[in-house]
Write a structure and sequence with these properties.
Number of helices: 11
Structural class: alpha/beta
Distance between the termini: 18 Å
Shape: globular
Radius of gyration: 17 Å
Largest sheet: 8 strands, parallel, barrel
Strand content: 15-25%
Bound molecules: 2-phosphoglycolic acid
């Protein structure tokens, strides 16, 4: 890697809609305990619990190097949006990051690239770092459209004024999420290089080279090291395996 662009590894646990208070706090405390006891961390660690756990998990992470993230935010600062949560509220709960445009939100809530970009901008305006998710479906991949789809999502979802310090991108092929199927290292390497290329055209070289690009989709302790060794893979967005402290920790130190 060009020494001018050191991208510290970032491992993010996306708990999705899992966890009641007691096990959730236990999980956070277990991760915080391991991180606190480690002599040196080679990665930034983040956990993204469901919204009702943000405050107790923030408490469990207090004084630990593990950061807190939200799983989604609304594009507006406040107002009549029943059931939604704003970026400022996430910040108020102690978050430093928020996932936006996860494929489950794009599919379940019909979120467009435009919506995702507005959420990412709202996150940045509130002082959070958005983790903007992109990724093709199995059908798009089979049709040979994977790279074009991902490029379109990047061009449509990433804030046009982002800089490396306030942007993270996650490449998550939809067919690899929660399925146990992982993209091959070759496919991941190609997609990540392509994403960096598109970011470069959009935001300039400086931003593209400094932006962390995570891989997500069935990342587990047994495949993490191979994926994280790829040149343009700067970390992982971990779903299922982030629900076990041992597994999440093993990925974090891969
Ligand atoms: P998975 O989920 O690790 O369970 O595949 C990843 C994600 O959706 O962020």
């Amino acid at each position: 890697m060009d020494p001018r662009y050191v991208r510290r590894r970032l491992i993010v646990g996306n708990w999705k809609m899992n966890g009641l208070r007691e096990p959730g706090v236990e999980l956070a405390a277990a991760v915080a305990g391991r991180a606190g006891a480690a002599a040196e961390l080679t990665a930034d660690l983040v956990v993204c619990p469901p919204a009702h756990l943000l405050f107790p998990v923030a408490e469990a992470l207090r004084d630990s190097p593990v950061a807190l993230g939200g799983q989604d935010c609304h594009m507006a600062r406040s107002g009549a949006h029943t059931g939604d949560i704003s970026a400022e509220m996430l910040r108020d709960a102690g978050c430093a990051y928020v996932i936006v445009g996860h494929s489950e939100r794009r599919a379940d809530h019909a979120e467009s690239d435009e919506t995702v970009r507005a959420k990412a901008v709202a996150a940045q305006d509130a002082g959070l770092i958005p983790i903007v998710c992109v990724g093709e479906t199995a059908a798009q991949r089979a049709a040979g459209e994977a790279l074009a789809v991902v490029a379109g999502q990047i061009e449509g979802s990433v804030p046009t004024r982002a800089v490396a310090a306030n942007l993270v991108v996650a490449y998550e092929p939809v067919w690899a999420i929660g399925t146990g199927l992982t993209a091959t290292p070759d496919d991941v390497a190609t997609a990540h290089a392509h994403i960096r290329d598109v970011l470069g055209r959009m935001l300039g070289q400086e931003t593209a080279m400094g932006t962390r690009i995570l891989y997500g989709g069935s990342v587990k302790p047994s495949n993490a090291a191979d994926l994280l060794a790829l040149a343009d893979v700067d970390g992982a967005l971990v779903g299922g395996a982030s629900l076990k402290a041992d597994d999440f920790w093993a990925i974090g130190v891969s």
